[in-house]
Amino acid sequence: MIRARFTHNRLTLLGHAGYAEKGQDIVCAAASALVYALVGALEDKDNVAELVIRPGNVTVAARADDPAFAVVRRGLEQLAGRYPGYVRVE
């Protein structure tokens, strides 16, 4: 299961969806796409305070408030609603 934790200007994703085999997991791909979009949006504004990307562990933090976090949170909540056994937003 992917667990998404949001705190002020920070997102941490832990785990793997486990929906399908590695390389075929559409839930993991969707979550990854949202996170990479967030990273790109923050990088475009030179607003990345911390970035850790490892298998099963991603942390993205911003220097200042950014509306991109709300968009990504909503996307992950929708993913969790569609695939509740594979994604949880905390």
How are the elements arranged and paired?
Elements: E1 2-7, E2 10-14, H1 26-44, E3 48-54, E4 57-62, H2 68-82, E5 87-89
Parallel strand pairs: 1-5
Antiparallel strand pairs: 1-2, 2-4, 3-4
Helix pairs in contact: 1-2
Written overview of the protein:
- The chain is built from 2 helices and 5 strands.
- Strands 3-4-2-1-5 form a 5-stranded mixed sheet, covered by helices on one side.
- Helix 1 runs antiparallel to helix 2.
- The longest helix is centred in the middle third of the chain and has 19 residues.
- The two termini are 12 Å apart.
Short description:
38% of the residues lie in helices and 30% in strands. It is of the alpha+beta class and 90 residues long. α1 packs antiparallel against α2.
The rounded Rg comes to: 12 Å
Helix content: 25-40%
Q: Could you say which overall geometry the principal axes of the C-alpha atoms support?
A: globular
Question: Can you give the mean pLDDT?
Answer: 97
Major sheet details: 5 strands, mixed
| Strand arrangement, major sheet | 3-4-2-1-5
Tell me how many strands there are.
5
How much of the polypeptide forms β-strand, as a percent range? 25-35%
Number of helices: 2
What is the end-to-end distance?
A: 12 Å
**Strand and helix order:** EEHEEHE
In the predicted model, the low-confidence regions spanning at least 5 consecutive residues are none
